[in-house]
Structures
1.
Amino acid sequence: MSRPTIFASKFVGTVSLGLLTGSSLTLSFLTLPTLLDLPTLPPALSSFTHLRRTASSYQTLLTTLATTSLLLAYTLSPSKARHPYLLMTAAITASTWGIAWWRKDAERELTLEKGRSAEWARARAESGEVNGEVVREEMEEWRWGQVLRAGAWGWAWGMSVVGIWGDGF
């Protein structure tokens, strides 16, 4: 396949990994601590519900894009240019789906059931069905899941940058 196509696939995968790493670190160290400081439960719970759903959808999209483009670059490369870093970065990126599944992002326990809205979570919090400490624990669990995923994505991003640099692009 043509060199520009292979480079574009590597570049898209690398940029996607950078976006994933940055977004996950921002969620972990800037956004969630701010939500934890909200004075009452209903706005914190509805904000967290919306944040988690939105972040999950974008992270799934970017993870799929990164994994697919890196595997495509490996597949399209000539046999002498098939570098193992493409497979390793794709495998590390795909492993974050396993982290999400293993951690379950604490969705089973408390607020989110598939298809529920932030308004539903707010109503549930206002009615007293949800304890603030349980919500705090859920946010902390989700935060550390994001930190684990950011570490994996950051590692893959670093390998990808060094690999592209080594390829001479």
2.
Amino acid sequence: MDTVLAQIETLISMAGILSTRGAEDPGWIEHYFENSLQEKILLLSRKAGRQQEFALTVAKFRCALLDANFSAANVDVPTYESQLIRVYEGFSDVDHVPQALCDKADAEIVFNANMQRVSAQTTGAPAVDSGSLNVIRWKHLTKALDNLTAAGKLQDAKNLSRIHLRRGDCELLRRRLGQAPTSYDIALKSASTLLKNAEIYYRGAARLAKAEGATDEEWEALTKEAVVAAFLGDQSKYRERILLEKCRVQEVVEDMTEDGLVLEDDMLHLDL
């Protein structure tokens, strides 16, 4: 059964690679899953009493395959959105399983990234008008935040520091919607509140990471908190991080830019 789970994880990775390539059809991945793994999954999950573990892994696969199909232009935005919602509809008790809520949140965040690419396309007719895309992106980022918040409140939740980090990331992604070229009105008006929320989540993540002994997460959280504090007008923490280890700060900032949390122009106003 562990072999089958590993095979599904491999397919998830392959679908992720295809998503970044854009034009390559992932049909062969779906064909392999349906013809070589689907029946085994049904049998093994029942025998081993590991239905939840298999269900979570299969849901992640469905999301990854959907992302790849969207990148390959096999599905349009409405279909992508509706199918994403359906992935976890059949998952029993999803609101009480921390990992399911976190995975669901991650799927919403990836969906937002794909919508961002749609809004940034410069050739061809847009699949959805920019105003509708902004509404859709805000809705799914808010869902992601709600799922992470719910996951963090459950007693059996693990990696609480990572959950809080992702909550901070969601707030920065929502803030991004208020910046050019999207300039979404709700995000623009809420920018200061979203930054303050992110600062609180990152501070909480750092505290939890320290308690967990998760040094990498603690460094990431403290650095992200310092970046947000600088955006709010206090660069003292950011300068302290620079003095401690400039290269590590640069790595976090580069990741934040790559993940779409901040714009390169944002960072030009900071002393790096």
3.
Amino acid sequence: MSTFTLNPTLFNHTLYTRLLTLWFADLPPTAKNPTPALVSRWFGRGASAEAKRDFDAQCAATALPALESIAADQFVLPEFQSAEDDRATNYGWMAGSFAGEYTPPAPSTALPTSSANSRSSDDAGPTLSNEQSALALMLLLDQMPRNIFRAGQAPIYTHYDRIARAVAYSVYGLGLDRSERFRASAPWRMWFYLPLMHSEGLGDHAVMATKLRGLRADIDEDVRRRQEMDSGRGG
């Protein structure tokens, strides 16, 4: 399969910053728990119908142009057989279209420019880390469609979920889900794993269970480390 080329005027750090801000507001990346307001935003718990509609509208305003640019008639996927078949056959080339958004640029002999840390000269906005860009893509592919396409949900399950899983496995392979920035923060890190929860493949669920155990272990390790530091200061 040939690699689909993302539109850099849509897929860039400005979009990813807007997605992260929309989803997490001012939640610190080291937070151990989400705020009640974020729980309401994410899961609709205690939110009024008007508040849910407002948040869906914000999601559409932020993400719909990018999602439409990779819709099924643009980013054409092979007929779905199974999650296992997709993982074995299709995820590599599917994720390849997105990997440049969250992988370090290849070494270059060219002279550095003032925008050396930017992925595109068309993206003059903020510069994010690879793990931040990867997390934003997880939200774009896995969460935004669920808030935007409520009236016609087929594209969520037949198209965007497949891409989300492909990108998720690519991100895991790079270890970005366990980066120091999010390593011990469940409210941030868990969104790397939601694409697997939405899968019907038992293998994906097994991987998700392993990832969540790793998250729990990293949180416990962080707690132990902080306790040791506090104990040392107290001595």
